[in-house]
Amino acid sequence: MSNLYAEAYEQSIQDPEGFWGPIAEDCFWYKRWDKVLDDSNKPFYHWFAGATTNTCYNAVDLHVENGIGDQTAIIYDSPVTDTIKKYTYNDLKEQVSLFAGALAAKGVVKGDRVLIYMPMIPEAAFAMLACARIGAVHSVVFGGFAPNELATRINDAKPKVIVSASCGIEVKRVIEYKPMLDDAIDLASEKPQSCIIFQRPQAQATMIDGRDFDWADVMYQAAPHDCVPVAATDPLYILYTSGTTGEPKGIVRDNGGHMVALKWSMSAIYGVSQGDVYWAASDIGWVVGHSYIVYAPLLKGCTTIIFEGKPVGTPDASVFWRIIAQHKVKTMFTAPTAFRAIKREDPQAKLMGNFDLSGFKYLFLAGERTDPDTLSWAENSLKIPVIDHWWQTETGWAIAANCVGLHQFEVKPGSPTKAAPGWDMAVLDGDGNPVAKGDIGAIVAKLPLPPGTLPTLWQNDDRYKSAYLSAFPGYYETSDAGYIDDDGYVFVMARTDDIINVAGHRLSTGAMEEAIAGHPDVAECAVMGVEDQLKGQVPLGMLVLNAGVKRDQADVVKEVIQRVRDRIGPVAAFKTATVVKRLPKTRSGKILRGTMRSIADQKEYKVPATIDDYAILDEIEASLGKIGYGKKA
Ligand code: COA
Ligand code: AMP
Asked: Domain spans of the chain?
């Protein structure tokens, strides 16, 4: 049966240029493209080659020129500071052009990098847009990462300027950002020329003379800066994400393709129009925040919400309903873990009854698979479509979704519905052959990827090819495994690498193992993601100590936990580890993490035929039992 989705999907695959070209007319270009898709240097593809544009112009100035300057662009809702503040598109233009001027005064020019390490305050969005305005490349680092992770990103991006704030607020705790930033700069081999610090009343940052500048001072002195035309293919931002080693991958996003895909997605996927209020309850440090707190809603001329709080505890489990009702949110986007947190505090959803949610039309969930329990709880209590959709930092927008703006399909629990237009998906076996419908395999996307997806990794074309394009030539490897059913519904079941998903945050167990391995008493270790009712997964460490270590094992465990917190950050949520005599391995020496995970989760597992010593699994079971996993000892 034909519908708008089927027509769009078919055209996007058969004739990508014919599909995306007309969609791109919805954006402003200083110069139109020579070619919608330049595929002259495969496997690198460039969308809207030859065009020049400016993402900030499209997200801010264009709306002012089109007469909606008085419409609210950003609502800052911060229950942790008891603040609600609104910025119109006129206000946004003023703030962004001034901060662009401030960056320019610090010597930032087109192509320079600016690192942004900030909490959920509007100034973070102003800084991102100001970079886009002058063609600088921003790299936002999530506040929950430790100085060491920040230093790695500083070394790779080599920012001329770093923008930060004196502190963030985690429920009731004030987290000072400036000392972490100072530590990171000390650790980094690449030093920024200047830092601009937004001083918040909750903490006063100590400034380093000559290097650090107060946000208020630089804004006071700045002259507004106009938009600078950039090539559609120029980088807009770098966003680092966990890879399979301790070295994060610098995902690059271009200007043109990104703008086109995101603006289109607002109506096609999320069903919103200019003027609607759209709320993504995430953090600007994650891709969801980049795409759906900042860029997409503003490109579409919507009102976006910057929420500084948590789904529970700020002040309670009704905060989502209060915000939806008070600000008249039409579409909301968050991670399933947020709903699990609310459900745990208010299982009967009684708090919802206190609010008028009649304007609320769609709830979108992503970041991890929406488990059927959370799905049915949200559907039954909200009585609106609850839509799981699947994407990655690399893709920038949904690979599979129920595109409600095109056609609303029936929801199948556990599935993010069908491939979005532009995504030619396949499921392959280890040899690269398609598996039968319904069979599990590696989920891949045929090249070229649609606009808005990563064109490469920051200054690392080789790693881009080896990490994503080499396992299955001609395809992008998502590193997710799953299946596609007879109706074309995609089911994403697990990662095929060492990435785990903790409260919707993507983390590498390999990176945690690297941090632990540096402890002087640890001979070897394994970290795996075990099931957690609230966060979906949490990391669990198994440690083998060096021969002759006589110290109290509990002390070593404590130090190892602190080490991960210090090196990766609190966001890793690494809180449990246990000492074992040895780790189960294959005869070739590969640690059987999957088998240990199954034991911890009390799942059926097959003892691998290649295991070097069967008895060890009983020991592992007993050790896990002592810390509350697997069968109790
Ligand atoms: N700056 C500093 N520390 C931060 C931080 C930040 N920006 N963000 C998180 N942290 C810290 C937290 O304080 C916590 O530290 P703790 O171990 O000392 O308590 C740790 O990092 C883990 O944080 P978080 O993952 O947020 O867990 P939580 O237990 O505080 O809250 C949820 C759990 C489910 C309520 C929360 O993860 C959540 O709201 N998630 C859904 C929305 C979301 O962020 N999705 C992301 C992608 S869409
Ligand atoms: P991130 O890059 O942080 O957005 O994490 C991307 C990864 O999160 C994906 O590769 C998946 O493993 C997982 N993920 C995100 N959304 C979903 C979803 N809707 N269903 C299943 N897994 C998801």
From this structure: 4-309+389-483, 503-626
